């Protein structure tokens, strides 16, 4: 079956611009996670959704970052006033249950010039 | 706060050599433990996991890992590596039970290069 998909695969933007990154989880998976992976590091947790609600957004770096999952399926990570330090690979993962195996998407590589 | 430490940043081996990648974690409670692998050009895939029971767990492609609770370790092993095992390996921990929801904390990763 289809895995987790993320679009776009690459995004290049200029400092100060707004970007949206999309995640399509595996159908039926209620738990959805966003992580950020900087060069040479492991992924770092950003936010967790159970259904439509953000159950834990403690990993979001600051208020320029926001994520939604309005219908409990697709999620969008939104970054306002991008900075060069936001450049990273943004990973989405989904799981059928909160403590289950997480299935990762291919990621969106964000480059802020 | 939970943390994961992987001992080696880059490991280089020849085919048929044995592999052990170290992983230690810090967490104040019951944990679930994972090893993920990222092959070149591919996304993260689960290699194996420990939730409970036998502390020696077997995963795909001949990999295994041993959970040693007293040492807070979850080392990954393979008796004989192949060129196709060239990849980056990540150890990860998540809280288990109660209100935990699977938030993963990853180590910094170990790049494994296997020469034919």
What does this structure look like?
- The complex is a heterodimer of chains A (113) and B (116).
- With 113 residues, chain A is mainly beta.
- The relative contact order of chain A is 0.33.
- In chain A, a hairpin with a 2-residue loop joins strand 5 and strand 6.
- By secondary structure, chain B is mainly β.
- Chain B contains no helices and twelve strands.
- In chain B, the strands form three sheets. In chain B, strands 2, 5, 6, 10, 11 and 12 form a six-stranded mixed sheet that branches. A four-stranded antiparallel sheet of chain B has the order 3-9-8-7, with no helix packed on it. Chain B has a two-stranded antiparallel sheet with strand order 1-4.
- Chain B starts with a strand and ends with a strand.
- The mean pLDDT of chain B is 93.
- The interface between A and B is medium-sized, with 26 and 23 residues.
Observed structural traits:
heterodimer; A: 113 residues; mainly beta; seven-stranded mixed β-sheet; four-stranded antiparallel β-sheet; B: 116 residues; six-stranded mixed β-sheet; 12 strands; 0% helix; 53% strand; globular
Summed up, what is this model?
The complex is a heterodimer of chains A (113) and B (116). Chain A is mostly beta strands and 113 residues long.
Quaternary class:
heterodimer
Query: What is the straight-line distance between the termini of chain B?
Result: 41 Å
SSE order of chain A: EEEEEEEEEEE
Mean of the pLDDT scores of chain A? 95
**Globular, elongated, flat, extended or rod-shaped: what is the shape of chain B?**
globular
| Unreliable segments of 5+ consecutive residues of chain B | none
Q: Report, as a whole number of angstroms, the end-to-end distance of chain A.
A: 37 Å
Largest sheet of chain A: 7 strands, mixed
Structural class of chain A: mainly beta
H/E order of the elements of chain B?
EEEEEEEEEEEE
Using only C-alpha atoms, the radius of gyration of chain A works out to 13 Å
Helical percent range of chain A? Answer: under 10%
Broad shape of chain A = globular
**Averaging pLDDT over every residue of chain B, what do you get?**
93
- Rounded Rg of chain B: 14 Å
Q: How much strand content do the residues of chain A show?
A: over 45%
Strand content of chain B: over 45%
């Amino acid at each position: 079956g289809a895995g987790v998909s993320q679009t776009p695969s690459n995004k290049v933007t200029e400092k100060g611009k707004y970007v949206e990154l999309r995640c399509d989880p595996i159908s039926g998976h209620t738990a959805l996670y966003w992580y950020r992976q900087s060069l040479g590091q492991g992924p770092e947790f950003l936010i967790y959704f159970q259904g439509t609600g953000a159950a834990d957004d403690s990993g979001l770096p600051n208020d320029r970052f926001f994520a939604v999952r309005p219908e409990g399926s697709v999620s969008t990570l939104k970054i306002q006033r991008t900075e060069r330090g936001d450049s990273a690979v943004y990973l989405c993962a989904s799981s059928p249950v909160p403590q289950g195996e997480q299935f990762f998407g291919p990621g969106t590589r964000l480059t802020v010039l | 706060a939970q943390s994961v430490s992987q001992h080696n940043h880059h490991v280089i081996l020849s085919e048929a050599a044995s592999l052990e990648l170290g992983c230690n974690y810090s967490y104040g409670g019951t944990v679930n433990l994972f090893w993920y692998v990222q092959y070149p050009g591919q996304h993260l895939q689960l290699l194996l996991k420990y939730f409970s029971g036998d502390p020696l767990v077997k995963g795909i492609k001949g990999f295994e890992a041993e959970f040693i609770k007293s040492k807070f370790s979850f080392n990954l092993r393979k008796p004989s590596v192949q060129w196709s095992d060239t990849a980056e390996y990540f150890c990860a921990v998540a809280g288990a039970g109660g209100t935990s929801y699977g938030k993963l904390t990853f180590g910094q990763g170990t790049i494994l290069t296997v020469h034919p």
